[in-house]
Amino acid sequence: MTSPADIIRELCGDLGHTDIAGSPVTWPGYVGFLPDFPAEAAAFYDEKGVDDGRLMSGTKIEHDGLQIVIRSPVYRDGWNKAMDIALALDIQNNVSVAVESDTSYIIVNVSRIGTVLSVGVDAKDGQRRHYFTINAKMTYRLASL
Length: 145
Known about the structure:
Blueprint: H1 4-14, E1 19-20, E2 28-31, E3 41-54, E4 60-72, H2 75-90, E5 93-100, E6 103-112, E7 117-124, E8 127-142
Parallel strand pairs: 1-2, 2-3
Antiparallel strand pairs: 3-4, 4-8, 5-6, 6-8, 7-8
């Protein structure tokens, strides 16, 4: 199995909002951490989910939690990137995401918990960097082979 943070990072890459960490483009996406550089980056974290019980057939229903952190030296750029990702996630419905060459998942839905939040700034080498978060729950399943 793959973590929800990995799956959403891949989806954001497929949609053109972030790229795989270490690539030479802006807004690389990292899973589970946010390095000091580059200044414009995104991090995808697994968070607490919600257990919604079972269907009559016995299938357990869970909504895994996730948090996306966006960092940018320019407030407006960070806000816009966070909003672009949030709005893109809002419309995902039964979309297939390939995480590895032989593994795909169906994202049934992503439900944000509130709006994009500005959560402050830090200073690295004299440069202020703004942080924004997107918090959500998602439902997904392994795609049939």
